[in-house]
Recover the amino acids of this structure.
């Protein structure tokens, strides 16, 4: 009888196998004569200046650092497939943060304390110029534990090999879920001579905790009774980053710069439930080892700030001591399907490295691509003082529209003409507002901005734009990156991302910088006060007929006071 059941199950399984197998084929091999040109697996979706390895899956940036003049970037990497799994630490090095050389995998599962994966973590440079990695291992039994790895040969400039000392693991879950305890931050040194790190965790009441650990020798770590921060508004928090920023200067600070009048701290947390990175600005009270956020009235992560309102997660900063700046990296996930990724053979990129500092108003951070990116700028086109009236569309010709860097400043004449809204939006409402008011919904001051990766008939395009509103007491500027028309391929994740822009618009001006890199559209509004990264796969990239336009769908004329667009060279990446 058993053979009969086997035959029945085989027959039942066959159609699902056929659908699964056939669907990617239909999607990817639309034109059998020219498989490459008509496939979502086309090389056209690979990036020219965003970090990615030659193939396979990547996610979080890990342990970025500058060591003896060389930048190191490690990253979560699956060496065998374009989907998440078998997680190791990939490793690349650079002298300019733009061109990267791949090295061997730095950490791979090998010991009982990381047999099921080498997950995210950070690097710290100890006195005597000794780098050390603290990372999460998934143990034989599937628990999250924290481990140390040290360079095998400290005088190797590339830090090729890493050893895991036998005293690992150095931290195991206590009082929190053993499967929700991970991603140790870069360590900082207190005035008492103790090193500290914070680790994200979820307790048994489903509360998120930034646990604090201290150590004298970097070997024995003791958990502080009080966490650095805890919240009821999220369950697990991942990839915590905790660092000081100057309230006076744009320049970055070493992670161990603690209490000083003009120093504030940033606590960044990846909220597991929605995969968004949020941050709070506040004071770190060293005596109490506690972080006290400023301007927070409710314990609600939806009211916290975000570095980026798009596809951006698990970010991490490092202090670049040579250039006195703090640099931010983040993982930007694909928005196609897993089966697309398998056919593409790769998934995941890192956003461009961004310098990050505290805004003059002390209330938010500002980000801007590192200046080294400008070394890739080639042909340039410029516009000055061009008016764009209602319904206007101006094409920016003369640069390769799939690999470009555009900076534009808009001026709008009469603020009092802004659309009136009768309710106060919450920070979290921006995406909903962008969803309702897309680039073709006419307004008053705006929507105006860029249409990029656009076909000549606009059937495909990604719109990045602003819209200005007034309430009874103030003005609000909405920035959107709308992907809904970005591609004719079906089954992609194509939302309209949005964030509010906190900027002084009384002067009637606002700027936008957009980096276009094949499947990445990374935008910086108002000098980097609001950032949105999008992943898009326009079909038009396969034929190369790509356009960039400035548009205005508001009743009020806006002026392009200046616009510069550069074609970008391809970086040497891995
Ligand atoms: N990715 C890692 C974890 C981290 C998560 C696993 C965040 O360590 O919590 O690949 O994307």
């Amino acid at each position: 009888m058993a053979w009969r059941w086997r035959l029945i199950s085989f027959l039942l399984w066959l159609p699902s196998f056929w659908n699964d197998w056939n669907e990617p084929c239909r999607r990817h091999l639309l034109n059998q004569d020219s498989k490459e040109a008509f496939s979502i697996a086309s090389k056209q979706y690979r990036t020219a200046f965003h970090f990615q390895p030659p193939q396979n899956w990547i996610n979080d940036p890990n342990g970025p650092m500058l060591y003896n003049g060389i930048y190191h970037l490690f990253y979560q990497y699956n060496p065998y497939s374009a989907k998440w799994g078998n997680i190791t630490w990939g490793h690349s090095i650079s002298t300019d943060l733009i061109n990267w050389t791949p090295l061997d995998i730095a950490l791979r599962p090998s010991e009982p304390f990381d047999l099921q994966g080498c997950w995210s973590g950070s690097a710290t440079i100890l006195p005597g110029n000794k780098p050390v990695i603290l990372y999460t291992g998934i143990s034989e039994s599937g628990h999250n534990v924290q481990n140390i790895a040290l360079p095998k040969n400290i005088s190797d400039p590339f830090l090729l090999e890493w050893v895991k000392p036998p005293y690992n693991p150095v931290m195991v879950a206590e009082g929190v879920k053993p499967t929700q305890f991970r991603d140790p931050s870069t360590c900082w040194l207190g005035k008492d001579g103790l090193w500290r790190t914070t680790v994200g965790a979820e307790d048994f009441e489903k509360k998120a905790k930034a646990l604090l650990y201290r150590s004298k020798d970097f070997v024995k770590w003791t958990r502080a009774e009080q966490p650095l921060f805890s919240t009821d508004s999220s369950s697990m928090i991942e990839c915590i980053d905790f660092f000081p920023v100057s309230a006076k200067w744009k320049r970055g600070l070493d992670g161990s710069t603690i209490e000083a009048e003009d120093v504030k701290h940033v606590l960044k947390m990846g909220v597991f439930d929605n995969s968004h990175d949020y941050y709070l600005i506040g004071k770190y009270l060293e005596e109490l080892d506690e972080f006290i956020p400023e301007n927070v009235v409710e314990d609600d992560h939806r009211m916290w700030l975000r570095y980026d309102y798009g596809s951006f997660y698990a970010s991490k900063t490092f202090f670049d001591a040579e250039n006195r700046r703090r640099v931010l990296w983040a993982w930007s996930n694909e928005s196609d399907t897993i089966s697309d990724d398998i056919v593409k053979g790769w998934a995941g990129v890192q956003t461009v490295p961004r310098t990050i500092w505290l805004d003059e108003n002390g209330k938010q951070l500002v980000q801007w691509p590192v200046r080294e990116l400008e070394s890739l700028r080639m042909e340039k086109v410029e516009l000055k003082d061009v008016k764009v009236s209602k319904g206007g569309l101006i094409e920016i010709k003369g640069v390769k529209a799939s690999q470009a860097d555009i900076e534009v400043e808009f001026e709008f004449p009469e603020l009092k003409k802004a659309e009136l809204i009768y309710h106060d939006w919450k920070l979290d409402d921006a995406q909903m507002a962008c969803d309702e008011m897309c680039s073709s919904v006419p307004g008053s001051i705006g929507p105006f901005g860029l249409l990029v990766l656009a076909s000549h008939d606009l059937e495909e395009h990604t719109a990045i734009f602003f819209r200005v509103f007034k309430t009874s007491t103030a003005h609000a500027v909405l920035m959107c990156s709308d992907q809904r028309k970005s591609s004719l391929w079906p089954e992609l994740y194509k939302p309209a991302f949005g964030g509010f822009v906190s900027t002084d618009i009384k002067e009637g001006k606002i700027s936008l910088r957009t980096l276009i890199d094949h499947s990445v559209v990374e935008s910086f509004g108002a000098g980097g006060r609001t950032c949105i990264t999008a992943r898009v796969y326009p079909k038009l990239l396969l034929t190369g007929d790509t356009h960039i336009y400035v548009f205005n769908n508001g009743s009020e004329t806006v002026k392009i006071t200046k616009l510069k667009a550069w074609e970008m060279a391809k970086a040497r990446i891995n």
User: Anything to note?
Assistant: The CA atoms of residues 41 and 564 lie 32 Å apart. The chain is about 5% helix and 45% strand. Helices lie at 2-28, 338-344, 430-436. The chain has two domains: 50-351, 377-568.
